[in-house]
Amino acid sequence: MPIYLDYNATTPLDPRVLEAMLPYLSGPYGNASSVHRYGRAARDAIEAARVQVAALAGAEVSELTFTSGATESNNLALKGLTETAQPTRVLYGATEHPAVLEAAESLIGHGWGVETIAVDRAGIVDWSAFEAQLARGPLRLVALMLANNETGVIQDTARAAKLVHDAGALLHVDAVQAGGKLAFGFRESGADLMSLSAHKLYGPKGVGALLVKSHVELAIQLHGGGQERGLRGGTENLAAIVGFGVAAELAIAEREQRIAHWTVLKARLEAGLRAMRGITIFGDGSPRLSNTVQFGVDGWEGEALLMALDRKGIAVSSGSACASGTGEPSHVLIGMGWPRDVAFSAIRVSLGITSTETEIDRFLVVLGDLHAQVAAA
Q1: Under a CB-based contact definition with an 8 Å cutoff, are residues 313 and 3 in contact?
Q2: For residue 155, what is the DSSP state?
């Protein structure tokens, strides 16, 4: 049977989520902006989902805006914040997702100074360098992800927030990979803005959220209709929002069970990897998500190994799905200071709620056979 080990790229739709969505795909069809009973029913469903998703991050309901996904949320945060201020500086982590780093780099053409925040070989912010960077003049925004999509490394955003706020700036946190995999809170994170996504936690694709604290002023990026309290125009994706809400509720209820399951599987996987020669586990020693392991394999390029595993019926990743096919090594690993040849060798295994020990054992056997073939060549 095929084995799927790429859950950080996307997760399957939980059958319970699909069941909740189906009535809104075939039954109630009102526009949530309409005032008649059909519209009111749609509005009630959206507001119920807002409560569920806000609870996932311990946020206030009034702080949550639904979007089309994390990419829109990240762009709304970075561009919306910078359009309400005179150009100064924006900082983003060297290991950020492409939806953040490309949005940040796009600001250069609008007069903003854009700088990366250095991380160490383990993927953790270089705090001394960061403090010195914050002190080098006026600053509007810092973007720092909570859990890295490739390595699973978890950043101390609360520590970063204190430094950022002391510098008179705001903090945006991409918490997309943390949702359902890590207990966290909007308040505790120190973030002023936070991005979430449904399809990373067994919800539908095409829906996300941006959490925004009340003191933050954002420039609207999508005009028209005044939906989402005027912050994001466009008729809401009702069924997807309902699905997001149920997925968030399930993630809260089952989080500890899921983490315990992944912790066992991850330990089994890493034990098998450590028993092989020429394996480098990235972020080893840092706090990491319980479902994520990225590692390099001597003698292989990650894309070639990915395809070799695919031919054996095993689906993994060589990094971010949003940056695949570029022909370049992982910018995350380059940002961590790994040499290009080591970064080129990387693949990522990310576990799901239905992953099994049998799948991990099968993966290790196939990987060991492929690795031995290269070593013998």
Answers
A1: yes
A2: P
Q: 118: phi > 0 → left, psi -120 to 50 → alpha, else beta; which?
A: beta
Catalytic residue among 322, 334, 364, 366: 322
3-state secondary structure of 62: helix
Residues 316, 8: Cα–Cα separation, whole Å: 10
pLDDT for res 225:
82
CA 197, CA 71: separation in Å to the nearest integer? Answer: 9
Grouping H, G, I as helix, E, B as strand and the rest as coil, residue 31 is coil
With a threshold of 0.90, does the pTM exceed it? yes
The helix or strand, by DSSP H or E, that contains position 115, with its residue range, turns out to be: strand 113-117
In angstroms, rounded to a whole number, what is the distance separating the alpha carbons of residues 375 and 372? 5
With beta carbons less than 8 A apart as the criterion, state whether 198 and 80 touch.
Answer: no
- pLDDT exceeds cutoff 90 at 32: no
Q: How high is the pLDDT of residue 340?
A: 94
Cβ 67 vs Cβ 207: under 8 Å = yes
**Strand, coil or helix: 107:** helix
Residue with tokens 């067994």: 202
Q: Give 231-248 pLDDT, tens digit per residue.
A: 898 989 999 999 999 999
Q: Is 122 a catalytic residue?
A: no
Residue appearing with tokens 């092989």: 276
Q: How do residues 50-63 score in pLDDT, each as one tens digit? A: 999 999 999 999 99
Side by side, the strands of the sheet bearing 113-117 are: 64-67, 208-212, 193-197, 170-174, 141-143, 89-93, 113-117
* Token pair in block for residue 247: 């997925």
Find the length of the chain: 377
**Angle at Cα 106 formed by Cα 102 and Cα 112, nearest 5°?**
125
Are the CB atoms for 348 and 316 separated by under 8 Å? yes
Distance, CA of 341 to CA of 298 (rounded, Å): 9
Query: 77: which 2 tokens?
Result: 């945060």
CA 183 to chain centre: 14
* CA pair distance 88, 126, nearest whole angstrom: 22
